[in-house]
Design the sequence.
């Protein structure tokens, strides 16, 4: 058995800033954060790769709504092969211009994953336009709300990248 | 061979617990480059940081800008936002230079921490990144990156209450951190 402690993990991890994730450099290079809000087509899923170096209990997911909310948001976590491990199932996007939290309740082992994001309508979120997504391993899927049990990865187009983070905290900011 | 990654996030920081040392700062929150900037008087700038290894707290440091004035307080808090140590009110001294204050050696176990800095006036400057020029109306997103503020927080309080910045000047991020030693525990 390895002689190391693996009990401590960051309370909050943002997939834009996780070391080893391609989004880390891509999002950081997008200087500055886009003015105003972004949105994508209704029912269009985005699959964003990230790397977890720890065993991580995801108590909640969070994202940043923009100035106009609409419909519902679904967030999911997928294996690198596209199998859905967990998804929110969809919650109404609310309120505007705020971080929105939703309970998750999944423990992830160290490894590589895709975060799935889809909306039933074209509500706005804080983020960046991400035309550079294809060479970074981002994928998309049409008609994917709610998020499917098996992702069918399609080439990334000119979509926008939402800010999504996890936390081990069950409540609070 | 153990099947676990040995990347920077597992190995942890060396030298300082600081948002800038973690590689966790999203540069797109900022703009205008490094410059001498004032902070809001008595407003604590707070960053959530993660320490994956045992370390020893040695002190605190920040980088002053081209004007110094009044007093600075820099501190470290545990995962429950309770204060572990702080410099106390310290005269800001030395323009365009880093300033350091020692702390009683304290063992820090792996876990989540908060580093905070506050100044008691709006004249003294820090070497800071300015807020995103497109940030009007988007300050609420800073907590998603582990960045917070607390008003009326000079000297730094015994317990932090976290809030999102609500104006551009509140969203500046100076160069500061808690100095740690991970070589001897």
Sequence:
């Amino acid at each position: 058995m390895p002689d190391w402690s693996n009990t401590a993990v960051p309370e909050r991890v943002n997939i834009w800033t996780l070391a080893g994730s391609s989004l880390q450099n891509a999002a950081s290079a997008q200087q500055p954060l886009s003015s105003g809000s972004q949105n994508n087509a209704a029912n269009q899923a985005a699959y964003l790769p990230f790397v977890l170096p720890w065993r991580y209990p995801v108590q909640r997911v969070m994202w940043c709504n923009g100035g106009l909310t609409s419909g519902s948001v679904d967030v999911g976590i997928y294996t690198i092969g596209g199998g859905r491990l967990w998804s929110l199932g969809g919650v109404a996007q609310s309120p505007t211009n705020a971080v929105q939290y939703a309970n998750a309740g999944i423990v992830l082992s160290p490894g590589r994953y895709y975060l799935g994001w889809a909306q039933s309508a074209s509500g706005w979120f804080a983020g960046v336009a991400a035309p550079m997504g294809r060479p970074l391993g981002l994928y998309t899927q049409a008609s994917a709300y709610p998020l499917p049990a098996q992702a069918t990865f399609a080439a990334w187009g000119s979509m926008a990248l939402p800010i999504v983070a996890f936390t081990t905290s069950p409540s609070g900011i | 061979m153990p099947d676990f990654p040995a990347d920077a996030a597992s190995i942890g920081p060396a030298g300082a617990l600081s948002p800038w040392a973690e590689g966790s700062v999203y540069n797109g929150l900022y703009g205008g480059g490094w410059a001498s900037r004032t902070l809001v008087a008595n407003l604590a700038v707070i960053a959530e940081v993660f320490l994956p290894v045992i370390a020893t707290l040695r002190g605190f440091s920040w980088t002053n800008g081209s004007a110094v004035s009044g007093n600075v307080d820099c501190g470290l808090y545990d995962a429950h936002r309770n204060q572990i140590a702080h410099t106390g009110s310290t005269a800001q001294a030395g323009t365009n230079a880093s300033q350091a204050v020692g702390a009683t050696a304290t063992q820090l176990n792996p876990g989540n921490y908060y580093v905070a800095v506050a100044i008691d006036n709006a004249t003294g400057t820090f070497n800071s990144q300015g807020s995103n020029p497109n940030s009007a109306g988007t300050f609420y997103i800073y907590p998603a990156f582990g960045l917070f503020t607390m008003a009326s927080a000079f000297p730094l309080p015994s317990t932090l209450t976290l809030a999102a910045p609500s104006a551009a000047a509140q969203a500046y991020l100076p160069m500061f951190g808690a100095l740690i030693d991970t070589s001897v525990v």
Chain A has a mean pLDDT of 88. The interface with chain B takes residues 2, 4-12, 14, 16-20, 24, 27-36, 51, 53-54, 62-64, 67, 97-99, 110, 126, 128, 163, 165, 172-173 of chain A (CB under 8 Å).
